[in-house]
Amino acid sequence: MKKWSSLLMAGSLSLAVLTAGCSNGGSNAGSGANSADSGAAGGKDEITLYTIQSTNPNFQAWLEEAQEKSGVKINWVAAPTDSDTRQQKISTILSSGDSTVDILEVNDEMATSFKNAGWLDPLQDTVLTEDIMKQLPQGYMKDMLTSAKGDVLGVPSYTGYLGLWIDQKKLDAAGMTSIETKEDFEKFLKASTKDGQYGYGGSWEKTYVFNEIATFVNLFGGDYYDWTNENSREAVKFMYDMANTWKVTPDDQIADKYEQMNQKFIDGKYASVFMWGTGTDYKQANRYGPDQIHMVNMPKFAKRSIFTDSWSYVLNSASKNKAAAIKFLKYAASEDGELNSWKNFDRYPARADVAANEAVTGDIKDIYTEIQSTNEVHGRPMLPQTMEFIAEMGTLFQNYIQDKITLDEFCQKAQDAVERYQ
Description:
The chain is an alpha/beta fold and 422 residues long. It is built from 17 helices and 10 strands. The chain has a 5-stranded mixed β-sheet with strand order 2-1-3-9-4. The longest helix has 16 residues, at 230-245. The protein is globular. 51% of the residues are buried.
């Protein structure tokens, strides 16, 4: 991965489309300021947490256990529900040296923008020691939470794979038992496309399709930052063929985000999708299960590779309660902390050893364990001007899919975007 080489300051952050590609790691809190107790954190064992989880029905249960086991009193401030406002507020807190908040939850887009700014304290010497680091997804930690200087700046609160989900009934109808290779994947897509139904469904809106482009680039063994790489070109050509040559995916999905894609998948229009998380939408629709919609291992093209994301806890460099904040972060990174998040927020543990705990149950554990042991696990390729880069790549891809530009033109313009936003 290329190192990030520049940083947007708070006033120039692009806020128009921040929701791009975020998975459903947990329920976002309502807007406005709230706290478990009045007053800002002031004692050595007291902190203020800026959280996205306060409207989760299990937040109070999580909070009580976190306070008891960390030994830290946790005041909290609810992050705004609107993603644009949320990033703007967090950016302002950090860039202005505001010390009223000690710990903040940030997503991958924010981590990419903030990690080289000097606004966050390194955690490798105090919290993320070697024994804990070796249990975390190494590619993700390097890609998303490590600064250009090598400092580790966040504690990931979960693992949420962008995995391949299939409709088992359609796999059975295709006469197949598994999808292990690129050839299997193509066969399944073609066999499942008929009667107005498609083998593959995507979320190809310009600020979301980035996730799928990068997934195929990884599977083909390409490099999202190098569009002279033949494997990168082959990956995008494969997506073009899905839509235009084989017609196993509809071209009108260029307007779809995850909400539209998931509904069509649930309704039976698609046989497979790439989607984040543990299947919450499918469970709520009573479409989840080994004989219905479920996650399978990534097929091996040139290799097996998958993205994970997370919301991570970071330490505000301006905090006046760092000793207490570090106690909380040690708890968040501990087995107790990760199991608390699993129990109350349905967040799959980021640590491999905690994920193996018998308290973590369900069929999702089996597939997550298989993925963890057989795939390269990475954070998504993001540049400091994250949203500008994502939106431009999405627009170029849509133009290519609609035959407005050629593959050569796409690759040239994509490389120009890499150089412009790095």
